[in-house]
């Protein structure tokens, strides 16, 4: 009977330890759009990120740190690198579920009309994990 009970407890502990899921950095809900400013364009993009590492500070705050940058792919297939970059450091008194990231930059009149793709590269500064997200936007009359 003791053997059966110890086997049951061991199996239960193994099941509990295996069911603990490791978080993985992921992005979701990417969006992008452009506003015509009369010759120039203002491009805005947003994406949310979750699954980043959080650290609890000595003051019992949950902290996260994310760096990100944006490239675009033109209608001609050329890549324009690092049009925008930023870093977000957040501290809250409760666990952080997700972080919204915002991108904003201008394109001048040398950019042709057509369909563009923005690629947002995201790095969790605590874990070193990275992920990319993309969305399409158009420059049109």
Quick overview:
The protein is 13% helix and 56% strand. About 12% of the residues have low confidence.
Description:
By secondary structure, the protein is mostly beta strands. The chain is 13% helix and 56% strand. It has 1 helix and 8 strands, in the order αββββββββ. The strands form 2 sheets. Strands 3, 4, 5, 7 and 8 form a 5-stranded antiparallel β-sheet that branches. A 3-stranded antiparallel β-sheet has the order 1-2-6, with no helix packed on it. The model is unreliable at 4-10 and 12-21 (pLDDT under 50).
| Cα distance spanning the termini | 80 Å
Share of β-strand residues? over 45%
Topology as a string of helices (H) and strands (E): HEEEEEEEE
- Report helical residue fraction: 10-25%
Average pLDDT:
88
Total beta-strand segments = 8
Radius of gyration: 22 Å
Query: What low-confidence regions span 5 or more consecutive residues with pLDDT below 50?
Result: 4-10, 12-21
Structure classification? mainly beta
Please give the oligomerization state of what you see.
single chain
Mind describing the biggest β-sheet? 5 strands, antiparallel
The number of helical segments is: 1
What sort of overall outline do the alpha carbons produce when their principal axes are compared? elongated
